[in-house]
Amino acid sequence: MGIQIAPSILSADFARLAEDAAAVSNADWLHVDVMDNHFVPNLTLGLPVVESLAKAAAQPLDCHLMIEDPDRWAPGYVEAGASSVTFHIEACRAPIRTAREIRAKGARAAMALKPATPIEPYEDILSEFDMVLIMTVEPGFGGQKFLDVCVPKIRRTRDLVAKHGLDIWIEIDGGISADTIEQCAEAGANVFVAGSAVYNADDPNKMVETLRTLATNASK
Ligand SMILES: O=C(CO)[C@@H](O)[C@H](O)COP(=O)(O)O
Ligand SMILES: [Fe+2]
Protein backbone atom coordinates (compact mmCIF):
# COMPACT_ATOMS: atom_id res chain seq x y z
CA MET A 1 0.00 0.00 0.00
CA GLY A 2 2.87 2.53 -0.38
CA ILE A 3 2.84 6.30 -0.36
CA GLN A 4 1.33 7.74 -3.54
CA ILE A 5 1.20 11.30 -4.84
CA ALA A 6 -1.69 12.50 -7.00
CA PRO A 7 -1.32 16.04 -8.38
CA SER A 8 -4.68 17.71 -9.00
CA ILE A 9 -5.07 19.12 -12.48
CA LEU A 10 -7.53 21.66 -11.07
CA SER A 11 -4.43 23.82 -10.60
CA ALA A 12 -3.10 23.06 -14.10
CA ASP A 13 -3.76 25.04 -17.29
CA PHE A 14 -6.93 23.54 -18.82
CA ALA A 15 -5.75 24.50 -22.30
CA ARG A 16 -2.54 22.50 -21.82
CA LEU A 17 -3.65 19.45 -19.85
CA ALA A 18 -1.42 16.98 -21.69
CA GLU A 19 1.69 19.12 -21.15
CA ASP A 20 0.80 19.73 -17.51
CA ALA A 21 0.32 15.99 -16.99
CA ALA A 22 3.77 15.40 -18.47
CA ALA A 23 5.18 18.01 -16.06
CA VAL A 24 4.42 15.63 -13.18
CA SER A 25 5.78 12.44 -14.76
CA ASN A 26 6.93 11.20 -11.32
CA ALA A 27 3.36 11.23 -9.99
CA ASP A 28 1.57 7.97 -9.29
CA TRP A 29 -1.83 9.31 -10.35
CA LEU A 30 -3.40 12.35 -11.97
CA HIS A 31 -6.24 13.60 -9.79
CA VAL A 32 -9.15 14.91 -11.88
CA ASP A 33 -11.77 17.04 -10.08
CA VAL A 34 -15.19 16.79 -11.73
CA MET A 35 -17.57 19.51 -10.44
CA ASP A 36 -21.14 20.07 -11.60
CA ASN A 37 -22.08 23.42 -10.00
CA HIS A 38 -24.77 21.62 -7.97
CA PHE A 39 -23.00 19.43 -5.42
CA VAL A 40 -20.34 22.16 -5.22
CA PRO A 41 -20.48 25.81 -6.31
CA ASN A 42 -18.01 25.36 -9.17
CA LEU A 43 -17.96 23.83 -12.65
CA THR A 44 -14.96 22.08 -14.19
CA LEU A 45 -15.05 19.25 -16.72
CA GLY A 46 -16.82 16.01 -17.57
CA LEU A 47 -16.66 12.78 -19.53
CA PRO A 48 -15.25 14.05 -22.86
CA VAL A 49 -12.24 15.71 -21.21
CA VAL A 50 -11.58 12.63 -19.06
CA GLU A 51 -11.74 10.44 -22.16
CA SER A 52 -9.16 12.58 -23.98
CA LEU A 53 -6.89 12.98 -20.96
CA ALA A 54 -6.89 9.22 -20.30
CA LYS A 55 -5.42 8.75 -23.79
CA ALA A 56 -2.98 11.66 -23.53
CA ALA A 57 -1.57 11.13 -20.00
CA ALA A 58 0.93 8.48 -18.95
CA GLN A 59 -0.40 8.32 -15.38
CA PRO A 60 -3.66 6.58 -14.41
CA LEU A 61 -6.56 8.92 -13.69
CA ASP A 62 -8.00 9.28 -10.19
CA CYS A 63 -11.41 10.90 -10.84
CA HIS A 64 -12.97 12.74 -7.90
CA LEU A 65 -16.63 13.29 -8.68
CA MET A 66 -18.11 16.28 -6.85
CA ILE A 67 -21.47 15.88 -8.53
CA GLU A 68 -25.10 15.15 -7.78
CA ASP A 69 -26.41 11.75 -8.86
CA PRO A 70 -23.12 9.82 -8.96
CA ASP A 71 -25.31 6.69 -9.13
CA ARG A 72 -26.02 7.65 -12.74
CA TRP A 73 -22.64 9.04 -13.79
CA ALA A 74 -19.86 7.21 -11.94
CA PRO A 75 -19.70 4.03 -14.08
CA GLY A 76 -19.33 6.18 -17.21
CA TYR A 77 -16.04 7.56 -15.88
CA VAL A 78 -14.59 4.04 -15.88
CA GLU A 79 -15.67 3.65 -19.50
CA ALA A 80 -14.02 7.02 -20.23
CA GLY A 81 -10.70 5.62 -18.94
CA ALA A 82 -10.48 6.41 -15.21
CA SER A 83 -8.59 3.84 -13.13
CA SER A 84 -10.10 5.04 -9.86
CA VAL A 85 -13.51 6.65 -9.40
CA THR A 86 -14.45 8.45 -6.18
CA PHE A 87 -17.97 9.65 -5.43
CA HIS A 88 -19.25 11.62 -2.46
CA ILE A 89 -21.17 9.47 -0.03
CA GLU A 90 -23.35 12.53 0.80
CA ALA A 91 -24.65 12.61 -2.80
CA CYS A 92 -25.09 8.89 -3.45
CA ARG A 93 -28.44 7.12 -3.11
CA ALA A 94 -27.11 3.57 -3.58
CA PRO A 95 -23.41 3.50 -2.62
CA ILE A 96 -23.05 -0.29 -2.56
CA ARG A 97 -24.56 -0.69 -6.02
CA THR A 98 -22.51 2.21 -7.40
CA ALA A 99 -19.23 0.90 -5.93
CA ARG A 100 -19.96 -2.56 -7.33
CA GLU A 101 -20.64 -1.12 -10.78
CA ILE A 102 -17.34 0.78 -10.73
CA ARG A 103 -15.44 -2.33 -9.69
CA ALA A 104 -17.26 -4.58 -12.17
CA LYS A 105 -16.11 -2.26 -14.96
CA GLY A 106 -12.51 -2.67 -13.80
CA ALA A 107 -11.67 0.44 -11.75
CA ARG A 108 -11.01 1.07 -8.08
CA ALA A 109 -14.02 2.44 -6.18
CA ALA A 110 -13.76 5.10 -3.49
CA MET A 111 -16.08 7.02 -1.21
CA ALA A 112 -15.35 10.66 -0.39
CA LEU A 113 -16.30 12.39 2.86
CA LYS A 114 -16.71 16.15 3.27
CA PRO A 115 -15.01 17.62 6.37
CA ALA A 116 -18.15 17.37 8.54
CA THR A 117 -19.14 13.86 7.41
CA PRO A 118 -18.09 11.13 9.87
CA ILE A 119 -16.73 7.73 8.77
CA GLU A 120 -18.46 5.68 11.47
CA PRO A 121 -21.91 5.33 9.77
CA TYR A 122 -20.15 3.66 6.83
CA GLU A 123 -18.17 1.06 8.79
CA ASP A 124 -20.36 -1.81 7.57
CA ILE A 125 -19.89 -0.96 3.89
CA LEU A 126 -16.15 -0.25 3.93
CA SER A 127 -15.38 -3.60 2.34
CA GLU A 128 -17.20 -2.47 -0.83
CA PHE A 129 -14.47 0.14 -1.41
CA ASP A 130 -10.80 0.26 -2.39
CA MET A 131 -10.21 3.72 -0.93
CA VAL A 132 -11.69 6.38 1.34
CA LEU A 133 -11.04 10.02 0.36
CA ILE A 134 -11.06 12.35 3.36
CA MET A 135 -11.51 15.98 2.31
CA THR A 136 -9.35 18.39 4.28
CA VAL A 137 -11.07 21.47 2.78
CA GLU A 138 -14.69 22.05 1.80
CA PRO A 139 -14.90 20.65 -1.76
CA GLY A 140 -15.21 23.06 -4.66
CA PHE A 141 -11.97 24.97 -5.06
CA GLY A 142 -8.21 24.55 -5.09
CA GLY A 143 -5.87 26.70 -3.03
CA GLN A 144 -7.83 26.60 0.24
CA LYS A 145 -6.37 26.34 3.72
CA PHE A 146 -5.93 22.85 5.20
CA LEU A 147 -8.50 22.03 7.92
CA ASP A 148 -6.55 20.31 10.68
CA VAL A 149 -9.82 19.46 12.43
CA CYS A 150 -10.05 16.58 9.87
CA VAL A 151 -6.87 14.82 11.01
CA PRO A 152 -8.51 12.72 13.80
CA LYS A 153 -10.88 11.28 11.17
CA ILE A 154 -7.87 9.99 9.19
CA ARG A 155 -6.74 8.11 12.29
CA ARG A 156 -10.23 6.75 13.03
CA THR A 157 -10.60 5.58 9.44
CA ARG A 158 -7.21 3.84 9.55
CA ASP A 159 -8.26 2.13 12.81
CA LEU A 160 -11.56 0.92 11.29
CA VAL A 161 -9.77 -0.41 8.21
CA ALA A 162 -7.30 -2.30 10.45
CA LYS A 163 -10.10 -3.58 12.71
CA HIS A 164 -11.75 -5.26 9.71
CA GLY A 165 -8.45 -6.43 8.19
CA LEU A 166 -9.16 -4.58 4.94
CA ASP A 167 -6.71 -3.42 2.28
CA ILE A 168 -8.12 0.07 1.80
CA TRP A 169 -6.16 3.16 0.83
CA ILE A 170 -6.81 6.47 2.57
CA GLU A 171 -6.53 9.54 0.37
CA ILE A 172 -6.35 13.11 1.63
CA ASP A 173 -7.41 16.05 -0.51
CA GLY A 174 -7.27 19.79 0.15
CA GLY A 175 -4.52 22.12 1.30
CA ILE A 176 -1.82 19.45 1.14
CA SER A 177 1.69 20.91 0.99
CA ALA A 178 5.12 20.35 2.49
CA ASP A 179 3.75 21.99 5.66
CA THR A 180 0.69 19.75 6.11
CA ILE A 181 1.48 16.37 4.56
CA GLU A 182 3.43 14.87 7.46
CA GLN A 183 0.63 15.02 10.05
CA CYS A 184 -1.69 13.26 7.54
CA ALA A 185 0.85 10.53 6.79
CA GLU A 186 1.44 10.04 10.50
CA ALA A 187 -2.32 9.67 11.03
CA GLY A 188 -2.53 6.90 8.41
CA ALA A 189 -3.13 8.47 4.99
CA ASN A 190 -1.20 6.95 2.07
CA VAL A 191 -2.50 8.77 -1.03
CA PHE A 192 -1.95 12.52 -1.18
CA VAL A 193 -3.66 14.92 -3.56
CA ALA A 194 -1.91 18.24 -4.07
CA GLY A 195 -2.98 20.85 -6.60
CA SER A 196 -1.65 24.32 -5.89
CA ALA A 197 1.41 23.06 -3.98
CA VAL A 198 2.56 21.09 -7.04
CA TYR A 199 1.49 23.30 -9.94
CA ASN A 200 2.53 26.59 -8.31
CA ALA A 201 6.00 25.16 -7.60
CA ASP A 202 8.89 26.19 -9.86
CA ASP A 203 9.55 22.50 -10.55
CA PRO A 204 6.34 20.44 -10.17
CA ASN A 205 8.16 17.08 -10.42
CA LYS A 206 10.60 18.11 -7.70
CA MET A 207 7.66 19.04 -5.44
CA VAL A 208 6.12 15.60 -6.07
CA GLU A 209 9.35 14.04 -4.81
CA THR A 210 9.54 16.39 -1.82
CA LEU A 211 6.00 15.45 -0.80
CA ARG A 212 6.74 11.76 -1.30
CA THR A 213 9.83 11.90 0.90
CA LEU A 214 8.06 13.83 3.68
CA ALA A 215 5.10 11.42 3.68
CA THR A 216 7.30 8.32 3.54
CA ASN A 217 9.42 9.44 6.48
CA ALA A 218 6.38 10.51 8.52
CA SER A 219 4.53 7.23 7.98
CA LYS A 220 7.37 5.05 9.31
O1 LIG B 1 -11.17 18.30 -4.72
C1 LIG B 1 -10.53 19.32 -4.62
C2 LIG B 1 -11.19 20.62 -4.30
O2 LIG B 1 -12.54 20.42 -4.13
C3 LIG B 1 -9.07 19.24 -4.73
O3 LIG B 1 -8.64 18.10 -5.42
C4 LIG B 1 -8.26 20.46 -5.04
O4 LIG B 1 -7.93 20.55 -6.39
C5 LIG B 1 -7.00 20.43 -4.25
O5 LIG B 1 -6.30 21.61 -4.46
P1 LIG B 1 -5.25 22.16 -3.39
O6 LIG B 1 -6.00 22.37 -2.10
O7 LIG B 1 -4.20 21.10 -3.25
O8 LIG B 1 -4.76 23.42 -4.01
FE1 LIG C 1 -10.20 16.50 -5.45
Automatic annotation (TrEMBL):
It comes from the Bacteria. Substrate binds at S8, H64, G140, F141, G142, G143, D173, G174, G175, G195, S196. Its cofactor is Co(2+); a divalent metal cation; Mn(2+); Fe(2+). The active site is at D33 (proton acceptor), D173 (proton donor). The keyword Isomerase applies. Keywords: Carbohydrate metabolism, Isomerase, Metal-binding. A divalent metal cation binds at H31, D33, H64, D173. InterPro entries: Aldolase_TIM, Ribul_P_3_epim, Ribul_P_3_epim-like, RibuloseP-bd_barrel. Pathway: Carbohydrate degradation. Its EC number is 5.1.3.1. Binds 1 divalent metal cation per subunit. It catalyses: D-ribulose 5-phosphate = D-xylulose 5-phosphate. Catalyzes the reversible epimerization of D-ribulose 5-phosphate to D-xylulose 5-phosphate. Belongs to the ribulose-phosphate 3-epimerase family. This is Ribulose-phosphate 3-epimerase. The lineage of its organism: Bacteria, Bacillati, Actinomycetota, Actinomycetes, Propionibacteriales.
